[in-house]
Design brief:
about 130 residues; 3-stranded antiparallel β-sheet; about 15% strand; globular; Ribosomal_bL12_C/ClpS-like
């Protein structure tokens, strides 16, 4: 087995998506019987206390997989949004960032952010 340095591992982790990172953390926790949240619990609690309770999800860039982003936007917005309306919203990113959702729970916004990033979009939650 080739010796891999910690630096090489970190460089690889930097290229991973949020979904891949979540899966990696879960695998490490299961394999080694540890919990990643324990070490960061005080910092996470402090950070959580300063976060707003509702935020907006803003699509900043579409990326290379436009069709996948359109489908993701339609699924996220739901309701009566058609694929045509989702396409118009995604196309409008060419003129500037577009709010996909407003005043939603931060946990839900984080899920939507991960979904959009998984298909190559650049998203901001604020």
């Amino acid at each position: 087995m080739e010796n891999i340095t910690n630096k090489q591992i970190i460089e690889h982790v930097k290229t991973m998506t949020a979904v891949q990172l979540k899966e990696l953390v879960e695998l490490i926790e299961t394999t080694f019987g540890v919990t990643a949240a324990v070490a960061s619990a005080p910092a996470a609690a402090k950070e959580e206390a300063t976060k707003p309770s509702t935020v907006s999800v803003i699509l900043k860039e579409v990326g290379d997989k436009k069709v996948d982003v359109i489908k993701a936007v339609k699924a996220i917005v739901g309701g009566t949004m058609s694929l045509i309306d989702a396409k118009k919203m995604v196309d409008a990113v060419a003129t500037g960032p577009q709010k996909i959702l407003e005043n939603i729970d931060t946990a839900k916004a984080t899920e939507h952010e991960a979904t959009l990033k998984a298909v190559g979009a650049i998203v901001e939650v604020k």
